């Protein structure tokens, strides 16, 4: 299942990342899993926003061999996401555009809400990440709910 490209998806994700305190030195690496088209969109928006994130497209087989502070899922079910996350050697911050319920799998679940990109937060997944997210992001998630 291929996610539809959404122009606000990269900008929203990069904005959320700007609220994260990392325990590692810069640059922060965001891995886009199995979606080269979406990876290219992220690279373009990253350049437009003059963000310092390192964006890279990775395949599932490469995921444990590259450094990813954050991982973006767009082609997996929530259950598949959870299985992949459970098998990662590190605990990256996780995002998904294919997980509207956000009850398992990724920490941040982005979805199209009328004309804008909104998101939900899975607190259980977020607590497993090594990243420290500013609590104001949780308020942003609540304010985007319909």
Automatic annotation (TrEMBL):
It comes from the Bacteria. InterPro entries: YfiR/HmsC-like (IPR025293). This is YfiR family protein. It comes from Acinetobacter johnsonii. The lineage of its organism: Bacteria, Pseudomonadati, Pseudomonadota, Gammaproteobacteria, Moraxellales.
């Amino acid at each position: 299942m291929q996610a539809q490209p959404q122009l606000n998806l990269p900008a929203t994700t990069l904005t959320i990342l700007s609220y994260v305190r990392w325990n590692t030195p810069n640059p922060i690496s965001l891995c886009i899993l199995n979606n080269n088209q979406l990876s290219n969109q992220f690279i373009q928006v990253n350049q437009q926003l003059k963000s310092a994130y390192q964006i890279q497209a990775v395949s599932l087989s490469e995921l444990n061999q590259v450094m990813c502070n954050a991982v973006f899922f767009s082609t997996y079910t929530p259950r598949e996401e959870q299985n992949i996350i459970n098998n990662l050697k590190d605990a990256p911050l996780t995002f998904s555009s294919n997980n509207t319920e956000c009850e398992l799998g990724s920490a941040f679940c982005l979805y199209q809400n009328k004309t804008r990109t909104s998101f939900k937060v899975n607190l259980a997944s977020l607590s497993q990440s090594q990243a420290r997210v500013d609590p104001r992001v949780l308020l942003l998630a609540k304010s985007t709910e319909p």
